[in-house]
């Protein structure tokens, strides 16, 4: 089975991320969510294991059906590809209400709570 790959920190998982995943899930295409293994700091307050657990909990039904897989990957410097080797490269532009979501703002609000 082929998966649509999404790479990110997901710190924290928010409606913008869910919108992004839904671009494939809503079409019945399984997704592989790769969590960059970044050191914890102000921009990455959650451990990689916590992020994976949060995503798997949010998508527990999809995980049980094999529609969502979540895994850690080493932190990356860039995403690179050569000639066409059997997969697409897609960019999804969210509607303005989704595009305005800021994980930084969410993290700052979480600090105040």
Concise overview:
With 113 residues, the protein is an alpha/beta fold. Helix content is 36%, strand content 17%.
Describe the structure.
The protein is an alpha/beta fold. Helices cover 36% and strands 17% of the residues. It has 5 helices and 3 strands; from the N terminus they run E-H-E-H-H-E-H-H. The chain has a 3-stranded parallel sheet. Helix 1 links the parallel strand 1 and strand 2. It is globular and about 45 Å long. It starts with a strand and ends with a helix. The model has no long low-confidence stretch (mean pLDDT 93).
Mean pLDDT: 93
The backbone outline, from C-alpha atoms, is globular
Numbering strands along the chain, what is their spatial order in the largest sheet? 1-2-3
Biggest sheet layout: 3 strands, parallel
Q: What is the percentage of strand-forming residues?
A: 15-25%
Helical/strand content category = alpha/beta
Question: How many DSSP H or I helices?
Answer: 5
Distance between the termini: 42 Å
Rounded to the nearest angstrom, the radius of gyration is 15 Å
- The tally of beta strands, per DSSP, is 3
Q: Helix-strand pattern, N to C? A: EHEHHEHH
Binned, the helix content reads 25-40%
Which keywords apply here?
alpha/beta; three-stranded parallel beta sheet; 113 residues
């Amino acid at each position: 089975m082929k998966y649509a790959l999404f790479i990110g920190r997901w710190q924290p998982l928010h409606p913008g991320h869910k919108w992004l995943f839904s671009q494939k899930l809503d079409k019945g295409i399984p997704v592989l969510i790769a969590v960059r293994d970044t050191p914890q700091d102000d921009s990455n307050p959650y451990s990689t294991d916590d992020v994976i657990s949060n995503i798997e909990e949010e998508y527990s039904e999809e995980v049980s059906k094999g529609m969502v897989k979540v895994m850690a990957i080493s932190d990356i410097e860039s995403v690179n590809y050569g000639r066409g080797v059997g997969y697409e490269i897609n960019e999804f532009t969210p509607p303005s209400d989704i595009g305005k979501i800021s994980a930084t703002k969410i993290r700052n609000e979480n600090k105040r709570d």
